[in-house]
Each structure stands twice: as structure tokens, then as C-alpha cells.
Amino acid sequence: MKPTGKTPRRPPKKPSNNQKDPVGVYCRVRPLGAEDEECCIEVISNTTIQLHAPDGLKANRNGEFKETQYSFKKVFGIKTTQRELFADVAKPLVEDLIHCKNGLLFTYGVTGSGKTYTMTGSPGQGGLLPRSLDMIFNSIGPYQAKRYVFKPDDKNGMEVQNQVDALLDRQKRDSQTSVPKTPTTRRIDPEFADMISPEEACKAGEVDEDSSYSVFVSYIEIYNNYIYDLLEETPFDPIKPKPPQSKILREDQNHNMYVAGCTEVEVKSTEEAFEVFWRGQKKRRIANTQLNRESSRSHSVFIIKLAQAPLDADGDNVLQDKSQVNVSQLCLVDLAGSERTSRTRAEGNRLREAGNINQSLMTLRTCIEVLRENQMCGTNKMVPYRDSKVTHLFKNYFDGEGKVRMVVCVNPKADDYEETLLVMRFAEMTQEVEVARPVDRPICGFLTHRLEERGGPVDGESPTVLNQLLQSFHPLPPCEISGPNDDVTLPRLIDALEKRHKIRKLMVEEYNKTANMLKSVLQEQDSNLLSKENFIQEQRGRLGEKDKMIQNQKNEIDRLEKKSKMLEYKIDILQKTTNIYEEDKRSLQHELESREQRLQREMSEKRRMETRMQGIVTDAKLKWEKECERRVNAKQLEMQNKLWVKDEKLKQLKAIVTEGKTENRQPQRPSREKDKVPAKRSVSPSPVPSSLSSLEPIYNFSQTVRPDPHFPRPGSVSVASCISEWEQGVPHSRRQGSQSPPDSRKRAQGLPDSLRRRRGRCWAREVPVQPAEVDLEETGHWVSRTGPLVRPLHRRSHSAGGERWVDHKPTTNVDLDTVLQPNIPNAIKVNAPNEKALSKCDKYVLTHQEFASDGEIQTKLIKGEVFKTRGGGQAVQFTDIETLKQENPVAASRKRRSSETGPDGEPMERNWTNVETRCSVAVEMRAGSNLGPGYQHHGYPKRRKP
Ligand code: ADP
Ligand code: MG
Fold first, then answer.
1. Where is the composition biased (Basic and acidic residues) (predicted)?
2. Engineered SS bond to 449: which of 231, 314, 380, 445, CB 3.0-4.6 Å?
């Protein structure tokens, strides 16, 4: 089969050359929008630009960003015209197209960097697209086939229609459109008028004049990874506009991609082609407005297909042979803005779209990366073309089906610096990708060749070369020898052969030279290969290291993650514990508050009580002071009276002695009447004259009264002395220094012998101490009575009632088997007197044991009253003694009576002393004392008789 019969897009099974070209990457710097804008790009040469980090960014990143340079196949500065750019970038591609080679040209850059301007241009400043179209039509203008001669097969191929069908189609079209036949009279849309001025017209160098050409254009948009046909004629429904239907990508039998069902419009002139483009452009704009899309987010692809087929033998019509039709295409792609999603400020649906758009560009980047890696490292990684529609559609280009060129558009403004940096990196990487140089397969040589080829299929290119070579030799002269004498033919032949031999020699030399050169080139290539392999090895080693590092870091991340989980768990526990403690704290605070409140209450209660107590104390103090005063006064009066009585008596005695010395020397018992006389004679004032006068007989009655200069002072009370006196029957007055209240002394004196205790088992009731005046008053009436004086029994009923007793039993006491035992109900039993017990009671009893004069143990219950002292302590005043004694009735006679009243009184004295020691004790304790320092002995020390 003839190679020309194949479409150039079919992957060559055995490419005749292994030459590769890098992807041509050009850079175009647009002028700044405003002159005062900060610029971050500088064009250094026509291949290099330099990026400067803007000042703000430098400050932010501590000057980490240095100035970086990037090189390109060519750099176009701000002053570059559209025409210059076209001449360098697109013109070769158009040439290729006309020579049956495919081409891909795309613009890449951030939004606003001039991609569309570069590709489409503006009125008067036509871009690459209109210029390409113009050049195509300028070149093939006269060789164009009639409309509908070529018919797309809706895949990638073209069919050739017969003339009749083509004619019918043309007639149909003419009847459908109201377009005037002559293009010159047609009004051109002002939007795209003047895209190319006629003087800038361009033309391809060589055009096969024996071929017939036809141009088809398609215009698609890839938005959100969906393909839309922008030239599809859809009936417009203003009420319910149909949303555009997306197209799918298919692969033909040659593994070339095509958009299934995509409209291909046959165009016959630049204007018509551009008009079609503009129609698509308008549709795109409308769709974007209707669907609220951003045009900068979509990729637009304008495909120019050039079909060419040889003319038939007559040179009038296209050869009706599909296999002879050659189709090449040029894709002009205006990519979406390369900026990251954040820059677009896209939200919601738009974000998703923007994400996909970026995804397409990401895929493009990844594909380029993998291609480069495969080429540099000799690997065979799969290139992920299928990951996006854009890369999938153009995968064949990168596999060596055509030239690939890219114009990187940059806006030098500083705001775009970071995005531009990314664009530069991508551009740099893309340049390193090499694409197989498309096999130069001219489908159409000159007419002679074509006719020659028609004779039969020729395999390969070598026969043609051989023929050409052979033709370059001079033909051999006729070598038929006319006769034996023909010495012309042979020398001519020899000459010719020699010439050929010379040529051969030259050729051999040339061949050897070329072979040597080739050899050295091969060697060079070998060494290159070797170094490349070394490099690859090195890279692999580095890769391994990096892999290890990544693994280590992954392990570290795992460990840290575990640790963080653990810490989270701990924090959780601590949180819970804190909560519990806080709960506890709250409840404790609550308790504390309630306790403080209680304390406050108690404190206020205490203060209240204190003030009350103070009131009571002052009351009691006043009362007692008054009482004391009263008693002192009474005592003074009494003393005065006594003195007076004594005086009187002395006077009487003196009178008796002086008057009746001879009559009677014995003292007479004064009569009651007599006694009353001095009272009447008394002139001393007496507050209680009646009671005092009634006392007089007592003293008289006793007959034991002796004038005593050491009259005891009032207030000094000795219970013990009284007890002793009573017991021993010794008059109180005999004891010098003994301090008993005068009233008690008087009472003791006044006691008749008959009333002295009978020996035997008995309780003797005595009242040794009574508060003077009270007793005087109380006893006043019975003193005046005649008859034996009987001490009234202690008012037991008083104590049995509400009174409380302190029952003091010293530990030294021995248990006696007496039938009668003191039993005081409701008493506090103590071994030694203490304040606490005393403060609670108002009565005190001491159980005292001692030897009686007859050697028997006798028990005495010495009673007293407890009252509060001024100092806040307690004092006991003894008031009464009860005696319990055991006696043998038989041995009663041998008891020494004298011992009780014995004149020497020694044993008595001892007992007395003992008792007094115990009984004259008044205990005073201050509040708060522990019976320590506050324990005071209020008894007066017994003064012995000298
Ligand atoms: P993009 O397609 O990359 O988003 P455009 O091509 O739409 O950017 O350019 C944005 C604006 O900048 C347009 O108004 C365009 O006319 C202007 N522009 C771009 N490049 C150039 C240039 N080289 N010279 C003059 N104006 C330009
Ligand atoms: Mg644009």
C-alpha cells in the first residue's frame, strides 16, 4: 500500500527516522495594564526572561525568593507584534499542515496574561488563528476543491464524493442560505473585521499544485471536563432553550482520537472560516452567560483540517479514491487560566468547575512530567492522558504524530508573580519533553511523480533515491562495436567507464568519510548514552534514598499520630478528673458557706449571751455589794450594842460590888426582867432593837461568856472551828485565833449541856455557820422561847428538790459497814472539788472520816452552799455538819468522856485541826481555769493559842 494513502495520524509502525524535537515553548510578555503597576518580569534576551520577587513578597518570606531566569525557544517582549509572533510560532505549523503534517499549538498562562489576545487577537490585531487561516487560504486558494467534494467521514478521515452528489449538495446549500454568492459584497461582522490586513498576507512556500485542497473547521469547548460543540446548529427555542449537549471522545481504528459527532464546517475563505469561528465564539459567550460560567475557565479548541487529494489524470477533478486522500490538522488551543482555584474566588458549583479545570491542567502537567521522565530515564511509565479530556484528545501529538508548540503568556504585573512562577516551572519542564519528529511523508510530489506512482505501488523510498542517483550519472555511450576497426566506441566507453570509476572512487571516498563520520557520531552517541545511563543510575540511587527518607518520615508520622492519640486520651481522662474535682470543690464550698453561716449565727448568739451575762453579773454584783454593806452596817450596830450591854453589865456589876459586897458574892442569874432593863436603858440607836434585845438572854443564859478582847472579826468564817467546838463541847471563845462568825459562837455558847450530842448511833444535826443577819432574824423567835433549844433539822426538802449536790468523797475514805449511808440523789460525785462540778451545783457535801475520842471512826457530812464569786469562780460556804458514828453499847462506859471536853484538848486539837483543814476550804476558781493556779485556799490558818 502506498504510504500516502494513510492518514498521517496513524502511528507509524516503523518510523523511518528516530529524530525527536523538543516541544517548542515560546514566551510572550504582555505590556502592563497600567504604567505605574509593579513589574516582576524582565526580558533579558530574546530567549531569556528574569523573574523578580515583588517587594511585599520578599519581605514576607525573608528574601527567600531570589531572582530566577527562564529560557525559552524564543521570548517575545511587550513590543512584539502579532505578525512577528505568527511568523515565528504559527507559520511553520501552517507550512507543516499544508505538507500533510499535524500540528498542535496552545497558549498557556494565567487569566489576563494574553492567551486569547495571542490566539484570537483583536480587530486590527489578528492573532494566530485568523492569521493561520489566512495563510492557509492564501496558499491553497487556487487549488481548492469544489465544496462538498470532500466529505468528512465523521471519524478522522475524508471521503471523496462524486461530482453529481457534490453538485446536489451545493445546490441544496445555495437554496438554504440567503448568503450572497460573492463574498466581496458580504458585510463583515465589525467585531472581527480587519483581523488581518491584506499587506500582511502570508503564503506557504511550496504547494502541490497537482492536488486539490479543502479546509474544514471545528470549534469545541471543554468546560468542566465536558466537550461542547460550538458549531452545532441547534434549533433555537426562546421559550425553553436547550442546554448544550456534551460530546464524547472516540478512538478510530488507527488509535487516533476524535470528537464523535462534532460539526466540521467546510470553509472556502479566510473570512468564511473566521465567520464560522466567530459564530462559535458567540455561542460560547451566550452559553457562558446563560449558564453563569466563566470563559476563562474553559479550554477552547479550534481544529483546522486540511484535506488534500491528487487530481485525476485530466487534472480537473479529485481522484475518486479515499485511500488517496490525505488529511492533516492543526489544533489551536486557548487553554483555561492556569491559576489556582483560590485566585478565582469561585464558590459552590463554580468551585467544582474551577477544580475540574485545574484538574485538566494538572493532568496536562502530569502527562508532560511523565513524558519527560520516560524520555530522560528510559522508563516506560504510562502517561495518564485519559485523566482529562484535553490530554486525551491530544495524546497522539505527544506520541509523535505532530509538532507541538506552546506559547506561554505572562503578565509582568507583580500581583501575578506566584502564579507566573508556576507557569514558568511548567514551561521549563515542557521544554524538556521531546516529541518524535513527524515522518516527512509527502503525499503528493509533483504531478510526474504522482502519475508515476499511479503506475503501481512502490515500497519504501529507496527505489526513488536509486533512480535519482542513477539519473545523476551520464548515460553510457553506445557500446556496440561497429567493426574490428571501431576504435571510437571502445575508447569512448573506456573514457566513460573511467569517468564512472573516478566518480565511484569519489563516492567510495565520500562513503568512507561519511561512514567514519557516522562511526564517530555513533561513538559519541554511545558515550552520551553511557553517561546518560550513569546519570540514570545516579538518579535511581537518589530516588532510593528519597524513598527511604519518605518511609522514615511515614513511620515518624505514624508514631506521632499514635502519640497524639494517646495524649488525647490522657487529656480526656484529665478533663474528667478535673470535672469530678470541680464538683467536689463546689460541694465543699457550699458546705463551707453553710458552716460559716452557722458560725456567724453562733457568734452572734454568743455575743448576745455575753451581753446578757454581763448584765446579770453587774446586777448580781450590785445586789451583793448592797447586801454586804447592809451586813456590815448590821454588824457594826450589833457590836455597838454588845459594847453597850457589856458596859451596862460592868456598871451593874460595879454597882453590885460596891453596893452589896457583903450580901452576896455569887453572881446571880439575871432574871428576864432584869435583862430587859439595860435594854431599855440603852440609848444607843439600833436598827433592829427588838431582835437585838432578844438576843441578850442568850448570852446571859450561857453563863460562859467571858470578855474576849480578841473578838473575831465579822466575815471571817471558820466552819471547822465551829464543828470542833460543837463536837468537843469546848466554848468557841476559848480558842484564841479561831475565826468563827460571832453568831455561831454565840449559839455554841448558848447550847445547854443537855443538848450536847448523846453518845450512840445518831446523826447530829448542827448549824455551825449561818449568814449572820439572816440567821439572827430567822432564829429570833425561837431564841426568845423558853424551854430547851432544839436546832431545827436541816430543811432537807429544799435540797431534795431542785437543788443539785456536789458529793465530795476523798479517796482516802474507808468503807464502813454502817447501815446508814448518805444517799444524795442527783449528785455529782467527785474525789476532789472542781470548778466544773461546782458550777453546775448549788450545794456541796464533804464526806469526812476521822477518829473520834473513843477511837471509833466517825463520818461527818460537812455541807455547804455554793455561790459564785465576783471573779467568776465558785466559793463554798459551809453551813451544816451531819455526823455518822458507830458505837459499841457495852464498852460505852469505858469511853473517855473527858477526851471530848478534856482540859488538855490535845487530841481534840488534832482532830479539830484535821477537820478545819478540810472544812475551812473555800474553793474559788476563775472561769477557764483548770483547777491550777486559780485554786485558792480561802481558809484562814488556824492560830494556836500562845
Ligand atoms: P487571557 O485570555 O489570558 O485571559 P486576554 O487575552 O483576554 O487574556 O488579555 C487580557 C487583556 O489584555 C485584553 O484586553 C487584551 O487586549 C490585553 N492584552 C493581552 N496581551 C496583550 C498584548 N500583548 N498587547 C496588548 N494588549 C494585550
Ligand atoms: Mg482568554
1. 660-678
2. 445
